[in-house]
Design brief:
Elements: E1 6-11, H1 22-33, E2 37-42, H2 49-62, E3 68-71, H3 75-81, E4 89-93, H4 107-123, E5 128-131, H5 134-143, E6 149-151, H6 166-172, E7 181-186, H7 197-211, E8 214-219, H8 227-232, E9 236-239, H9 248-255, E10 260-263, H10 268-274, E11 279-281, H11 285-297, H12 313-331
Parallel strand pairs: 1-2, 1-3, 3-4, 4-5, 5-6, 7-8, 7-9, 9-10, 10-11
Helix pairs in contact: 1-12, 2-3, 3-4, 7-11
């Protein structure tokens, strides 16, 4: 194409919440570097029918100035964006818009099922569905076999998240000479029941009682710019989530050659099968504690970055631009009566 692709990216990640939009901003910067003109549009609070209808109307009016529209989340964001007509539409399904919460009958139990229902209602309106994990892509294909579904994890910046000397990193953080084994736990909200911080804390306390000299480091309430140094200073990242799309915090740890101890979420089991320093556990504090002690005792420090090399911002941007160009080429083909897969 002679002119840059003009892409409207819709989202409902509240800008006032720290780090909630980081992964979208990273991807948008990567696409702009590839020559794609990206406009981010915050749709506002979509938890009411009035807000949803207003967002749907606004998106429909805005699309006239763009070549394609990309909903950055399923659920209500996908539903609000699905009404745009006359140009290709892409939706990214990221995790909580597809996975459901099982631990209680409270808000999350209902909310995640409603979110999944809205994602399901929307899928047929999109020309391409992007899943952040292979595991979730398989579930999406089983539900919507006629849809075009690609796996494209959220991008990270491998130039910022790099392996470092741990003692040097700790000294820069204000902990010179600290030789404890650092266990990292990362969550935007420690009260998020999906992340299960109480389980992580119980597992850490048990591990510390057994093998000693452990320090729990919380990546919570920090600007994203502070994370590369903190992550590289740690020995293991602990992920106790009930569900995940593809946890960005684990990607960032792997980029720094920091192994994980995690519950069985996303595609992490595929990596653990190949890497003895990475472990998948049942959501049980004793089992997780055992795995933490084994992980910090391991002398191995393999190249874990290789598992997320394709998720680098540059590589991911090229893949997404190829998808855009393919969809636009199809939309310009007069032999096709519709973009929809299966038509």
């Amino acid at each position: 194409m002679n002119q840059p692709i003009r892409a409207l990216w819709t989202h409902n990640f509240a800008p006032e919440k720290p780090n909630s939009l980081v992964f979208v901003d990273i991807a948008a910067d990567g696409m702009r570097a590839c020559g794609v003109d990206v406009h981010l549009e915050y749709l506002g609070n979509l938890r009411s029918l009035t807000g949803l209808a207003a967002a749907r109307k606004r998106v429909t009016a805005m699309t006239k100035g763009f070549d394609l529209v990309h909903a950055q989340y399923g659920s209500a964001c996908a539903l609000a964006t699905a009404g745009a007509a006359g140009l290709p539409k892409v939706v990214s399904v990221r995790g909580n818009d597809w996975n459901v919460h099982y631990e209680s009958r409270g808000f999350l139990y209902v909310h995640t099922r409603l979110a999944r229902a809205m994602t399901r209602w929307s899928l047929g309106s999109y020309d391409c569905v992007l899943s952040v994990s292979r595991r979730m892509a398989a579930e999406l294909r089983a539900f919507a076999p006629a849809s075009k579904i690609e796996t494209l994890p959220s991008a990270i910046d491998l130039k910022r998240f790099v392996p470092r000397d741990k003692l040097e990193a700790r000294a820069r953080l204000g902990y010179p000479g600290d030789t404890d084994r650092w266990i990292l736990f990362n969550a935007l909200d420690l009260n998020d029941r999906v992340k299960r911080f109480p389980l992580a804390k119980e597992a850490f306390d048990l591990a510390n009682a057994r093998c000693g000299n452990l320090s729990l480091r919380l990546a919570h309430g920090l600007p994203h710019e502070a994370l590369p140094l903190l992550v590289a200073a740690c020995d293991v990242i602990l992920c106790t989530s009930e569900t995940e799309g593809w946890p960005n915090s684990v990607k960032e740890a792997l980029a720094c050659n920091v192994p994980f101890v995690a519950t069985d979420v996303s595609d992490l089991r595929d990596i653990a099968r190949q890497e003895p320093t990475c472990r998948i556990c049942a959501p049980d504090a004793t089992t997780l504690a055992d795995a933490l002690c084994q992980a910090v005792a391991s002398p191995e420090r393999p190249d874990l970055r290789r598992h997320i090399a394709s998720m680098d911002r540059e590589a991911s941007s090229r893949q997404l631009k190829d998808i855009y160009e393919s969809l636009l080429a199809r939309s310009c083909d007069p032999a096709r009566s519709s973009l929809r897969p299966g038509n």
